[in-house]
């Protein structure tokens, strides 16, 4: 291939990119890279080819091309080639490559081998299941994976599942003055076996409902009062919102993530801890 022909193909690739024709853009970049893998400009072409396949959710291809892009990128300077490789390698479960990619980006993780299960704080993820979108809280296990610690109201999603999310925040939630990013989900990485239940509870005081939530979370389960769920349009969801767990007295629905018999046992325990002011009814599975 002559350089003049390569120049024309790169132009076509960029035009396809602008038109969001990701597959065509990726294929055109690859045609050029087969002949010119190591030109000064090639690192950007490898990166764009890998990114095109990331947009297509073709993770095997994004991983393959991403390794080439990262190999031609400076280490420790926050180069996005390493971040995208970290995502693709995580999804491919190539933990050695993922660890090296995060290091190449400039992130320090605890020493170790195999699956990364660090504790990196909390963030939010916007779940997307066939058009339904819901923002939930996660405990971050690595730069791109998190365990869901909310009880989702979206059908088919569960407390405790592990998701892979993108690296670019799309909105933020502010809790007691602390800002937490909202990331878009890329895929469900590991399912949860905990079913979602609903129950109607009556709490005489705010502390009664707080005690119920703490009882379930203390046993590794989830509990989410209906009063803490806010409905936002897609545009507003990507903005900045103050977030609080609205816990109050009275009667309301609570979503639970626990085996039904275990949930029943904990509810009985909670109600029996005081003589008056606590009761529950209508425990049942959702969906």
Automatic annotation (TrEMBL):
InterPro entries noted in UniProt: TPR-like_helical_dom_sf
Superkingdom per UniProt: Bacteria
This protein's name: Tetratricopeptide (TPR) repeat protein
